[in-house]
Amino acid sequence: MSAAPVLELRGIVREYRSGPTVLQVLDHADLTLNRGELVGLVGPSGSGKSTLLHTAGLLERAEGGEVLLDGEGVLNLSDAVRTRLRREKLGFVYQFHHLLPEFNALDNVAMPLMVNGVKRSLAREKARELLAEMGLSERVDHQPGALSGGEQQRVAIARALVNDPKLVIADEPTGNLDPATTERVFASLIKIARMEGAAVLVATHNMALNQHMDRVLTLKAGKLTAFAG
């Protein structure tokens, strides 16, 4: 029997209400994401890309449809269980790195493992290995303020991947970087994700990154369709 997709969104409906007004952001949206697959998500500003990512990442609840992670329905689980699943199976990368300024790069990356109960020495060993893969061996003892923007984002990617997540969700992960740095950072994300076998869903305005994707989807009028470049 073939393995279940890492992520399935089936008929997802997301609505926002303001008084009598209802804004439907996702209109029965469907998405399947398999292990090791890199999928891009594009669409105009305000089209609901972040809403879709937050729904897929168990940060928001849909009003309708199903969300399955590793074949298991997760939409109606308790907040505590959804939080545990985010810690254990998901990794997040944002436009801004959100590193903890008081900790060095090594401990920023090791933190998710320690939160999950891994001994500090083992967590730091895994963090050191990932940072080396990112080309940051010489920067592990530096705090975020002493790192360049590209270095900070590579640390953030390492942090997102340190728990060996099944699914990585990236929301404009290079949106704050110059083109040359963007290529380096995105190459690092792809390299580690492929090596770890994670599925990756990336929302981006940067069309140049589409060439790196296995496929690209467009979100428009609340529905997902294949990108027609």
From TrEMBL:
InterPro entries: AAA+_ATPase, ABC_transporter-like_ATP-bd, ABC_transporter-like_CS, ABC_transpr_LolD-like, MacB-like_ATP-bd, P-loop_NTPase. Pfam families: ABC_tran. Residues 7-228 form the ABC transporter domain. Gene3D superfamilies: P-loop containing nucleotide triphosphate hydrolases (3.40.50.300). Belongs to the ABC transporter superfamily. Macrolide exporter (TC 3.A.1.122) family. PANTHER family: IMPORT ATP-BINDING PROTEIN, LIPOPROTEIN-RELEASING SYSTEM ATP-BINDING PROTEIN LOLD. This is ABC transporter ATP-binding protein. The lineage of its organism: Bacteria, Pseudomonadati, Pseudomonadota, Alphaproteobacteria, Hyphomonadales.
